[in-house]
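Hello forum,

I keep getting stuck at the same step: I have a sequence, I want structure tokens, and every attempt I make locally crashes halfway through. Rather than fight my setup again tonight, could one of you with a working pipeline run this one for me? It's a single chain of 171 residues.
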Amino acid sequence: GEERLAQSLERRSLDFDFSADGRLFSIAAGDEVRIWSLPDCVPTVGPIRVERAPGRKDSWMFARFSPDSRHLAIIDPYAGIRLCDTATGALLGPRIDMEGGTFVKAWEFSPDGRLLCVGEKTSEIRDVATGRIISLPFSSRDGLILDKSFSRDGSLLRVAPTSEAPASLWD
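Reply #2:
Ran it on my machine without issues. Output:
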């Protein structure tokens, strides 16, 4: 399996993630994401192609599994977020556009994987199944929200400009 992974990754900006259960591994590079089963390193679906921002195909792209491993959030800092079904590789719903770019900590899944908090200046909570916004927009006292985390039961969301800065709690 190691040789197949290495061959698919040559000469690209790469991002990797493991699913919470350790059974899946994602690789984001160029304009595609690949999902591999572990420990045998076999692709579970074909390459997932993602439309990138013009002129940004070689820039970083990130992919993160939801806590239940059923979804993958594919983040292009210049083109927004796409959600993907990990079993089929199908892209779900429309792209989630982000004002001013999207950075790796500008989003967070709820512990049950049903909600996705997105945004860095103004945040909103979306239902993963429908893509619909289910909260009023909110922001941090200090402008940017680059660090987010849900409580373990998903009832509270902590937001802050950085992990060292004073935080705000939202319910």
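The longest strand covers residues 24-29. If your local run keeps crashing, start a new thread with the error log.
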